Amino acid sequence: MKKGDVWFFDKDIYIKEYASCVGVKEGEGPLRDGFDVIGEDDRFGESTWEKAECRMFETACRKAVEKSGLSDSDIGCLIGGDLLNQCISTSFAARDLGFKTLGVYGACSTMAESMALGAALIEAGLEEYVLCAASSHFCTAERQYRYPLEYGGQRPQTSQWTATACGAVILGKEGKVRIKAACPGRVFDPGVRDVNNMGAAMAQAAYETLSRYFKDGEKKPEEHDLIVTGDLSEVGAAIVDKLFRLDGVNLGERYGDCGLMLFDRQKQDVHSGGSGCGCSAAVLCARILPRMIKHELKRVLFCPTGALLSPLSAAQGESIPGICHLICLEDAE
Element (H or E) spanning 314, and its range? Predict the structure, then answer.
């Protein structure tokens, strides 16, 4: 059922299982105990950073299938994406996984985008189980969007640390966490041109999507235990909070951001916080879903944000549009 911009899923669609695979720095952070696989190094046994990200993506997907008790033949479709040109991490991993694959790109919002589409496929009766995943790697993202690490460039305090991480979830008709609704994002461009300030570029999109959900979904902020964006980090999260306060809405302590959850900013030098497709995906699998299964959280809005730029658009002086996709998760019990 569709109401305004919100998709409400009439059928019971659940997250059946989930898994995450992360790099060394992420494994040293506060969510260490929640990750399924932590690499011994950030190459994951491969010869290049790009091959390492492919391996990480494949590892998270295989781990999710293994934990679910399903066989590969049960997985109807893989929906996934990453930050690299032509989504090569997803495509090359899918080459070895062998699943039917729909590659998607929403920058750092990709995890929610894939879950919304996966739930829609199950709602339509086209698939029984859908595997959704998203990944990023600090070294591949720096080389593509800014400068190779060997360049040794200085990073301003507004910059974020792209997570070396992948999260994967399997959607189906049984599980402990229900996908109640989704609100696809609209592209919003605040005019930011600084590639080292992704939080400011994406914040308005998060505000717009959340505002539309509160209107069309007929739920108030206080009816949710957690409202989590990603990955706005310190700069963007503060903007979202301020925009809602200007509307007379206090999100309060229920509001958080995945970029501020993945790392310990007091002990780890990540500047403004975390970012990347894998950041929100890994936080979902290592922190949010485990808390929901323990019944610590009853209703959660998972709202990853994406900066829709490319190296070419940035070089041509284009601004950085943002997007935010929203998933409403509820405790199934």
Answer: helix 311-315
Spatial CB neighbours of 216, under 8 Å, sequence gap ≥ 6: 3, 4, 5, 6, 183
Number of helices (H), then strands (E), belonging to the chain: the values are 11, 16
Nearest in space to 138 (alpha carbons), one of 127, 146, 130: 146
First to last CA, the chain: 22
**Long-range contact pairs involving 247-251 (C-beta distance under 8 Å, separation at least 24):** 247/211, 249/221, 251/221, 251/227
Alpha-carbon span 65 to 165, nearest angstrom: 18
Q: How far, in Å, CA of 321 to CA of 201, rounded?
A: 7
Ordered by start, the domain boundaries in the chain are 2-172, 177-331
Class of 2-172 per CATH? alpha beta
Tens digits of residue pLDDT in 1-51:
888 999 999 999 999 999 999 999 999 999 999 999 999 999 999 999 999
| CA 293/CA 60 separation, integer angstroms | 20
**What CATH number should be reported for the domain whose range is 177-331?**
3.40.47.40
CA max distance for the chain: 53
List, for residues 54-106, the tens digit of each pLDDT value: 999 999 999 999 999 999 999 999 999 999 999 999 999 999 999 999 999 99
